[in-house]
Write a structure and sequence with these properties.
It contains no helices and 36 strands. With 364 residues, the protein is mainly β. A four-stranded antiparallel beta sheet has the order 6-7-8-9, with no helix packed on it. The radius of gyration is 22 Å and the shape is flat. It starts with 8 loop residues before the first strand and ends with a strand.
């Protein structure tokens, strides 16, 4: 049985990778013959007896479970995969395509690897040149090549830009490599060569130069000099950065809004940020004041007024007053999105509403 991936653990806490907001906002669009393709609604993946499909927010099945793996809708397209078991009993994905908001297969590109759409472009990997190097490029919503495969690594487009890794070679020998940023036309936006690069959020992207982290703006100019040991994307006007062993938050001027004093920190969400002080998980406001202190073993940032918390090896949800709103009873609890959260119990995975009631009971 192949379960959809859950958020990875990081330093004893869950590392949140929320739904992409790359080009304004990623759409989750339900399908079905009666649905207007222009109407933006929301749709959630489900698994039933090893096959994946989609439901709407009421729990109604919109696309019947029929795929071996699915991804969220983005740009009104969803990547779906098919596979089968090999002679050793291992499962292999051997076919894929993109469905539209009516559940129709609209695109079946032929590449070594493909990813979901973002900003109207999807990453694809293909064998290129005399030596058949596997390189990444991008296709558009019609399947046409928008940016030819020419990069060893690429990111999804966010706010109209994507990071790429450029490798210079002599035959099979790698001479040098660096990171750059391209726009949706494939043009490099800056001549600066970076050691590493991240995604754009709120007009800024983290970069690495000489082992230190800073930020560039959408013109490619360095606006916050690389001086941090770690740096993440801006969220609600603040970015978490690390100097030495401690984390703090800077504003877009590169000034500390909250001085480094936390052993762990997460991005601001719902005007609160999860931090660890003295081994305890707390939530702070934008002034750095502790507004919620917890005794939980683990927690996720707030989303739609609720934060998942782990108490006694079970997950539930806490409100902004620090009170348990949904009692711990789940093995895994994910953030709320459009008033729905995916949860896992021994019987499988389902979706609940903000009151804790199931809109889709757990299935395997």
């Amino acid at each position: 049985m192949r379960h959809m991936p859950l958020f990875p653990k990081f330093c004893g806490m869950t590392l949140i990778l929320l739904f992409s907001l790359g080009c304004g906002q990623t759409s989750f669009v339900p399908s079905g013959a009666a649905v207007d393709e222009g109407a933006v609604k929301f749709l959630y993946p489900v698994e039933v007896r090893g096959k994946f499909g989609y439901i709407d927010s009421s729990g109604a099945v919109i696309i019947a479970p029929q795929y071996d793996y699915v991804y969220e809708f983005s740009d009104r397209r969803a990547l779906v995969r098919y596979g089968n078991y090999g002679p050793t009993g291992d499962f292999y994905f051997n076919d894929y395509g993109y469905i539209n908001t009516r559940g129709e297969m609209v695109l079946k590109p032929d590449y070594r690897e493909v990813k979901s759409f973002s900003c109207g472009l999807a990453r694809v990997k293909d064998a290129v040149g005399l030596f058949r190097f596997s390189l990444w490029g991008y296709i558009d919503l019609t399947g046409a090549i928008a940016i030819p495969p020419s990069y060893d690594e690429v990111g999804d487009f966010h706010e109209g830009f994507a990071w790429v890794k450029i490798v210079k070679r002599f035959l099979f020998i790698e001479l040098s490599s660096h990171y750059a940023f391209i726009n949706t036309r494939g043009r490099i936006i800056t001549d600066r060569e970076f050691d590493m690069a991240g995604d754009f959020y709120e007009g800024y992207a983290p970069v690495v130069l000489g082992g230190k982290r800073g930020y560039i703006d959408t013109t490619g100019a360095i606006v916050i000099e690389p001086k941090y040991d770690q740096a993440f994307n801006f969220s609600e006007g603040l970015a978490r950065v690390r100097l030495g062993p401690l984390w703090g938050y800077i504003n877009t001027n590169g000034t500390f809004a909250i001085e480094p004093r936390y052993t762990l920190a997460r991005n601001f969400s719902d005007s609160l940020a999860l931090v660890v002080i003295g081994g305890k998980i707390s939530f702070i406001n934008r002034q750095g004041e502790v507004v919620i202190q917890t005794d939980c073993e683990n927690a996720l940032p707030f989303s739609e007024g609720l934060a998942a918390v782990e108490i006694g090896s079970q997950w539930g949800y806490m409100d902004r007053h620090g009170e348990i709103k949904i009692p711990p009873r789940f093995e895994v609890a994910e953030p709320f999105f459009h008033n729905r959260a995916r949860v896992t119990v021994p019987g499988g995975t389902g979706y609940i509403d903000s009151a804790g009631a199931y809109v889709w009971k757990p299935t395997e």
